Amino acid sequence: MKLLMPEQLALAPPQPGDSLARHYVSSCAGGALIGNVSTEMALLDTGRQQFPVSINHGTGPTDNCYVVSPQTAYSGYAREELQRLHRPWLAGPLKCLTQAVDRLLTAAKVDRLVQVNNWLLSTNLYPADWDGADLAPITELLRSRFPDHGFGFRSLNDFSNAELRQRLQVLGYLAIPSRQVYLFDGRAGAQSAFLRHHNTRLDATLLRRSPYQVVTGEALEAADFQRIEQLYNLLYLDKYSTLNPHYSAAWLQRGHSEGWLQLRALRNAEGRIDGALGWFANSTLLSTPIVGYDTALPQRTGLYRQLTRLCLQEAADRRQVLNFSSGAAAFKRLRGGQPQIEYSLVYVAHLPRARRLVWQVLACLLQRIGVPLMRKLKL
């Protein structure tokens, strides 16, 4: 078992037969392809699996992206979410709480954090053939290499990762809730329950009658990748939050060429792309970190509905589970999405007592306040 740092990886450029993780780390080293991510990328090689690893030293920008920064995830992003609640009676007290949490997180240096299997996505997928039996030596390796850093794993939920979560907690990792995601179980193929929902059927009719042509990544040209970046920005950065990852056209194009990102786009009769999505997938799971459409077009065009239908149909065709991330909760529930609380599992037992205490308080607050609110408000 070994952790290969950037300078070691630079001595041996990835070859065509190398793992997708190896290609991804090489592509994303330095963070140039994702505009607001400041982190160091390494590769964990267990002998059977290879995982990308993000290494933060807590010295990056204060608005570092939440995919590598718990400070942003649990403080900056939370503040932005509160503005969308439109519940003044609740937003006021929660704002005070998030401000207090922000000060605690700063004092605890939570951004000194190493994260295993971090693909710099909103949702990381774990290999179906990894049972976590080697977690103890992984923990010892990280503890010895990073004595002043916390370390852990993002994007765990009890539907997909119950055994992995249990193994981690036995080893002393803290379970820290992060958000509520929506899963669509497509393992029954054409008989999958979500395909029978009324809204899902309406979406299928809309896509079938759509004037748009569905094109794959192989049909895209250089200018199309620029357009997809623009569409992603319109939705995720302009409409939602600038704290979301700033994926560049170069990142999209590299992902397509190296095989770790699969793209679909909606091209109109004039040749312009008005909607697009990108999948990450393994043998059992599917996620969609890239979704974008022209938000200036009339809502009746139904671009998001068409893209959603493409995602759901892909999950059923592959007989896989789609992790459709968080957000647009009511929309996803109407189409059969099943809510699951997502966790980060973080190891801090080797850190000074004061820093450990802050992580423990954070876990307690989110489990006792955050999770009930997410479930009650159906976020």
From TrEMBL:
Top-level taxon in the UniProt lineage: Bacteria
Protein name, UniProt field: GNAT family N-acetyltransferase
Species of origin: Pseudomonas farsensis
